[in-house]
Amino acid sequence: MKHAVAMNSPAPPDAQKYPASMRALHWLRALVVIGTLSVGLVMVNLPDELPLKFEQLYPNHKQFGLLAFLLGLAALALRARSRVPQPPAGLKPWERKLSTLAHRAFYALLIIVPLMGYSMSSTFTQSDGVPFFFFGQVPELLPKNDRWFEVFQLLHRTFAYALLALVVLHVAGALKHRFIDKDAENDVLRRMLP
Ligand code: HEM
Ligand code: HEM
What is the residue-averaged pLDDT of the chain? Predict the structure, then answer.
């Protein structure tokens, strides 16, 4: 059955939407990444004496961080096999360039940040290990070396903050198109919603 399409709409709304599988994976990934980021920021500022810190928050941060990594890889694989809609024609060239750059940076950071986190745990002489849900412990493959740990810790933190900045930019962009531009054709949020 055909949709009733507004007269000034250049294509049926669904033609400009991301496929349902990409939309579902996007929101699942957003939830896991924002949760992992938030727990990371909170846990490092808690006192070491608090049992919650090393018994709950650290292991969960690590396993959800690894899940974010896998979801990032799954999203890349899914993207390669999907019909991805073109950016809305009405976007200004700088908006188009910035959003493409931000999306690429997301894919890169969702690989780099967890790998640096894993390398940090793996090289730390006093690491409690890296759990992954019902699979048990992930082997820590790198040699133990606290100097390397410090390097990976700095890299993990720096890239995680870059990811945080990117989330803020990304959300601000989506909200700008919806609430400030108020141009239905450039409303990118619609393309990601059910
Ligand atoms: C997308 C995934 C991840 C994000 C967004 C993330 C983010 C963060 C953030 C924001 C911090 C706090 C940094 C600070 O202020 O010092 C942190 C700390 C930490 N992360 Fe992650 N992380 C991720 C994945 C991982 C993974 C996969 C591991 C290990 C397998 C890991 C291990 C750690 C550890 C051990 C700390 C504490 C470092 C310390 O005590 O100084 N993270 N993470
Ligand atoms: C950490 C969380 C998030 C990550 C990692 C993320 C990642 C991404 C990526 C990689 C894309 C590009 C999809 C592609 O073409 O392959 C995308 C698109 C999009 N995201 Fe997010 N996102 C996150 C959170 C959010 C949130 C909270 C919002 C809501 C405001 C949002 C709204 C959108 C929209 C509207 C698009 C479509 C953009 C377009 O059509 O050009 N994202 N996101």
Answer: 92
Domain locations along the chain: 17-192
Question: By three-state DSSP, how is residue 130 classified?
Answer: strand
Dist. CA 75–CA 122, nearest whole Å: 26
User: Smallest Cα–Cα separation from 130: which of 119, 142, 121?
Assistant: 121
- Ligand 2 center–CA 5 separation, angstroms: 25
Which pLDDT value is given to residue 77?
Answer: 98
Q: pTM, whole model, 2 decimals?
A: 0.92
The number of the ligand nearest the C-alpha atom of 41 reads: 1
Contacts of 118 (CB under 8 A, 6+ apart): 62, 66, 130, 138
Strand, helix or coil for residue 137: strand
Q: Is 192 in the pocket of ligand 2 (CB under 6 A)?
A: yes
Q: Decide if pLDDT at 5 tops 60.
A: no
Domain 17-192 class, CATH top level: mainly alpha
* Per-residue pLDDT tens digits for 42-91: 999 999 999 999 999 999 999 999 999 999 999 999 999 999 999 998 89
Q: Cα angle at 28 between 110 and 99, to 5 degrees?
A: 55
Atom of ligand 1 nearest to the CA of 32: 1
* Protein residue whose Cα sits closest to atom 23 of ligand 1: 65
